[in-house]
Amino acid sequence: LQKQQQRDEQEQQEEQLEPQQEEQQQEKEQEEEREEEREGKEEEEEEEEEEEEEEEEEEEEEEEEEEEEEEEEEEEEEEEEEEEEEEEEEEEGGEEEAGKEEEGREEEEGGRRREGGGGGGGGGGGGGGGGGGGGGGGGGGGGGGGGGGGGGGGGGGGGGGGGGRGGGGLGRGGGGAGV
Q1: Among 114, 119, 112, 178, residue whose Cα is nearest residue 147
Q2: pLDDT tens across 118-172, in order?
Q3: Centroid of chain to Cα 158
Q4: C-alpha–C-alpha distance, residues 167 and 132, integer Å
Q5: Half-sphere exposure of 148 (CA within 13 A, CB side)
Q6: How far is CA 170 from CA 48, 146, 164, in A?
Q7: How far is CA 117 from CA 32, 76, 148, 150, 152, in A?
Q8: pTM
Q9: What is the rounded CA–CA span in Å between residue 133 and residue 148?
Q10: DSSP string covering 124-147
Q11: What is the pLDDT of residue 12?
Q12: Beta-bridge partner residues of 167
């Protein structure tokens, strides 16, 4: 009888505990579902944050690339300007040199013309001396020709014509060195 009573009591206790256990089981399952939902939301939020960060990084990289391109364009423009300035300076230098050469040529030609003119005058004087004797006059003329090359030589030729007494005077007026 005691054993039977014990069994009955145990069965009653188990019957009483069953609804409590079921409730606990349900609560446990509900809590697990809530945790899963929370975890799912957290994961979604993390993914969204990661996507936003990636987008921001991409935008920053694009901005940096644009800035680098602008800097490269500015450097190219500066180099082009420097090249143009160098070309202008070279052109100006070439014009100055050409002008100096032209001036030098004009001065040389003018000096030669002036020197040639002086020689011509000396030759005329020699011709006058030749009037004293026919042969001597011829010698003077030769001296004048030499003067055309360089002014000093023409004067010397005229002196040779003065010594004529029938025989032609020896002309010692050698042509001056042409400058």
Answers
A1: 119
A2: 444 444 444 444 444 444 444 444 444 444 455 445 545 555 454 445 555 555 5
A3: 66
A4: 11
A5: 4
A6: 123, 14, 9
A7: 127, 62, 8, 9, 11
A8: 0.30
A9: 24
A10: HHHHHHGGG-HHHHHHHHHHHHHH
A11: 82
A12: 165
CA distance readout (Å), 139 to 12, 25, 27, 69, 102: 174, 154, 152, 89, 41
- Token pair for residue 166? 């029938």
Q: Which two tokens stand for residue 116?
A: 């040639």
* Residue 33 confidence (pLDDT): 95
**Across the strands, what pairs with 165?**
167
114-142 b/e with 16+ CB inside 10 Å = b?
ebeebbeebbebbbebbeebeebbebbbb
Query: Average model confidence (pLDDT) for the chain?
Result: 72
Q: To which residue do tokens 């005077």 refer?
A: 169
User: Burial level of 176, CB count in 10 A (0-12/13-18/19+)?
Assistant: buried
Q: What is the dihedral of CA 116, 122, 127, 130, to 10 degrees?
A: -140
